[in-house]
């Protein structure tokens, strides 16, 4: 089971402290050392709105490059892709993740346009990205609920996906952490009617349902799940958004469920604690840093 480490992007973008480039690169290095091979490392967003991501180009230039390691950059529009393509080929990410928000109100607040206008822009960006050799993921944000307009129906998400065009991967995101397992099942069935693309999911644990949603998605054949080391982060444009599900906790759940992730629990938990300290957090949401792996060293 593939865990996509989103801490360097979705984790850091919602934290008050802006970390230096070198610390961000070290965060990625430690994540790779813990066994993570697919990492969402930057966002190409407006620096005045998301100052935590202002050094996206510098981060990408300084990241270690190795076979089997894939970097993802989040983009919200064509300007974000322009910034990626201005980089040398060696410094570019391997993939882009483009976000379309499921409701018009949230989309206007997040991207300054309606959902369908954002989807129009996605099709153009996706074509240009593929021409440049980049894989493309479409994330439908707020698929489970909107902080401004309430419930989001599976039909709405299906409509968006049906009009998205070619997809390398589809991610359905519970941006504000309101989803429950039955919704995961309903959304998976809805999007499967209109796409055969591999499915990825992005869950937040705002209402303590993120891990239940994740194991449900795994059982439904999703091939990738997002998580952040330490469980840090959240959406800066969603009221009361709290952290992602924690990489170390998710890896423990999946590994012991027979779904090998390749993530080493000890180093992952240590990295979660380390990044929390770098951010000035008294503690991080992840549990494994406190509870430890099992069985672990039973002589202690």
Automatic annotation (TrEMBL):
The keyword Metal-binding applies. CDD domains: DRE_TIM_HMGL (cd07938). Residues 1-269 form the Pyruvate carboxyltransferase domain. It comes from the Bacteria. GO terms for molecular function: lyase activity. InterPro entries: Aldolase_TIM, HMGL, PYR_CT. Keywords: Lyase, Metal-binding. Gene3D superfamilies: Aldolase class I. Belongs to the HMG-CoA lyase family. This is Hydroxymethylglutaryl-CoA lyase. It comes from Paractinoplanes globisporus.
């Amino acid at each position: 089971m593939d865990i996509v480490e989103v801490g360097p992007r979705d984790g850091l973008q919602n934290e008050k402290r802006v970390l230096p480039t070198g610390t961000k690169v070290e965060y990625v290095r430690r994540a790779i050392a813990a066994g993570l091979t697919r990492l969402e490392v930057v966002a190409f967003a407006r620096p005045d709105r998301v100052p935590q991501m202002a050094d996206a180009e510098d981060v990408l230039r300084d990241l270690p490059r190795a076979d089997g390691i894939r970097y993802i950059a989040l983009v919200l529009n064509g300007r974000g892709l322009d910034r990626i393509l201005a980089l040398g080929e060696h410094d570019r990410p391997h993939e882009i993740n483009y976000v379309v928000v499921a409701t018009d109100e949230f989309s206007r607040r997040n991207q300054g346009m309606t959902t369908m206008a954002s989807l129009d822009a996605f099709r153009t960006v996706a074509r240009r990205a593929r021409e440049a050799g980049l894989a493309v993921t479409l994330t439908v944000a707020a698929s489970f609920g909107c902080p401004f307009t309430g419930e989001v129906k599976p039909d709405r998400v299906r409509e968006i996906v049906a009009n998205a065009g070619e997809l390398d991967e589809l991610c359905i995101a519970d941006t504000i952490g309101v989803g429950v397992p039955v919704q995961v099942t309903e959304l998976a069935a809805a999007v499967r009617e209109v796409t055969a693309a591999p499915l990825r999911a992005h869950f937040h644990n705002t209402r303590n349902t993120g891990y239940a949603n994740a194991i449900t998605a795994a059982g439904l054949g999703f091939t990738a799940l997002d998580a952040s080391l330490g469980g840090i982060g959240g959406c800066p444009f969603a009221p009361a958004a709290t952290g992602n599900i924690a990489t170390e906790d998710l890896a423990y759940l999946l590994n012991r469920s027979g779904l090998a992730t390749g993530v080493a629990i000890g180093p992952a938990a240590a990295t979660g604690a380390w990044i929390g300290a770098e951010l000035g957090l008294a503690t991080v949401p992840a549990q494994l840093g406190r509870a430890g792996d099992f069985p672990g060293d039973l002589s202690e």
